[in-house]
Amino acid sequence: MSLPRSSSKSACFPWDLCVLLFLVRFSASQGSALNCHKTCICASNIVSCSRMNLSAAPTALPPYTAVLDLSFNEIARLRAEWTPVKMPKLHSLLLSHNGLHFLSSEAFVHVTNLRYLDLSSNGLRQLDEFIFEPLARLEVLLLYHNHISQIDRSAFAGLNSLQKLYLSQNQVSRFPLELVKDKNRLEKLSLLDVSSNRVKVLPVQELQELPAWMKNGIYFHGNPLLCDCALYSLLAHWYIRRLNSAFDFKDDYTCVLPGTEKRTVDAFELNVHLNCSTFKEEDEEAYLDQKLILSCDTKHRDMTKTWVLPGNVALSPDSNRSAVLLQDGKLQISPVRAEDSGVYTCFAVSDAFNETLYVVVKVHNFTLSGMGDTLNTAYTTLVGCLASVVLVLIYLYLTPCRCFCCPGRGKGKNPHEDSIHSSMLSATPTHEDLASKAELNRHVAFIDPKDLQSQNGKFNPSGEEEQGKGPRKKSVAESISSVFSDTPIVV
After folding, report:
1. Minimal CA–CA distance to 32: which of 59, 4, 66?
2. Omega of the bond leading into 335 within 30 degrees of 0 (cis)
3. pLDDT of residue 10
4. Which DSSP symbol is given to 59?
């Protein structure tokens, strides 16, 4: 039995409507459907869905989307399925001001070509391990104005192209040194902003060893830093070099003085509060025959560098000097000579910036090995002098009484009789005077060995020497001992 034509049409219409309703419900379950007339604003490859009260990212995004703006919405959680298909052309994603407090570990697996990611002004509290690992091409990451207090050491692993990282206005209490110093550091990172956090202690020594192009972009003002002279020296050095991080925010660097008051002061005035010494750029010191490498430590990376030697002599490949320009722009001097002392000038040039640096070199007029020999000789001389003083003191205070002062031993001895030793030390040819003085007190005489030898090198105990014809008596001036003699004779 055939149905009427009108009945056939009425049966078909509800079926089409059911299919349409199913597709709409399926799309709604996956997220907000994209409507460039109501939901978002589309301009070429830019899709702007800002301020649309969205609780989830819209689905069915055009595959050619390059910039997606989802800021100022109500997207609290960014799950892995926020974009069900890969978007190879998407390079900028803006998610600021959303109250975002959860990031899935697979939130970025379909947008691996991102170069700019803005997650600022949200409610993020921690960054888990390898959270950004799929973003190998990311260059700028904005995380400022969140509540981040915990950052896993591997949270930024895989960001091999990252150049700028903004972490200011959070609750970070530890400076992330591994990002700029560790073996897994971000090689291209030129800006690290950890200002206005809760950092109290900085790794000053490690930061001072970084190249200038990295220090130029490390910002840590607005933290409750503890005052000490190391911090003052660091900031003073950076300010003298006019590094942006210290020069542009000079008034914002404060620290807390030690003590019970916990008073906050200007970090650049610690030379007054803590009597810190004024910072002065140190010269490069070198020794003869040494190899010396001078660095042109510029504030910007990848600059073309040329050197001018002392005396305003331009460095050229044909010069006979020992200075050679290395591939990385450093100047090698080998071997170092005395005439290499002076001021070396480095001119650094790039498309957007020029810089001139001066390096003062001071060459010591001896080698490192020669300096060691000098120190050894001085040490030996000092030990010899101390030993001589000890021997003199031992004789003066610890020797037994001489025979003429012992009871019963001086009888029968001629008081005017003298020995050969007394005549040897006589300052005058009169033995009687010296013998009488020897009985009264002791004294120490230092004899010049030259005065104890005749011209043939033999000792003359009588104080006479042969010169020309016949003996001649030595004068008082010639026989008296020298006070500069190294050999003390005790009598």
Report:
1. 59
2. yes
3. 40
4. B
Question: Phi and psi (nearest 5°) for 313?
Answer: -100, 120
Burial class from Cβ neighbours inside 10 Å (0-12, 13-18, 19+) for residue 219 reads buried
Tokens at residue 140, please? 């700028």
Please provide residue 215's backbone torsions phi and psi, each rounded to the nearest 5 degrees. -60, -30
Strand partners, 33: 59
Which regions in the chain score pLDDT beneath 70?
1-33, 37, 318-320, 370-380, 399-491
pLDDT at residue 188 in the model: 94
Q: Give CA–CA dist 240/212, Å, rounded.
A: 12
Which phi and psi angles does 469 have, rounded to 5°? -115, 130
C-alpha pair distances (Å), 241 with each of 159, 248, 298: 30, 12, 10
SS3 446: strand
Angle at 55 between CA 72 and CA 44, to 5 degrees: 60
The Cα–Cα gap between 431 and 29 comes to 128
Look up residue 483 and give its two tokens: 């006070």
How far apart (Å, rounded) are the C-alpha atoms in residues 448 and 108? Answer: 91
* DSSP 3-state of 257: coil
- pLDDT of amino acid 485: 44
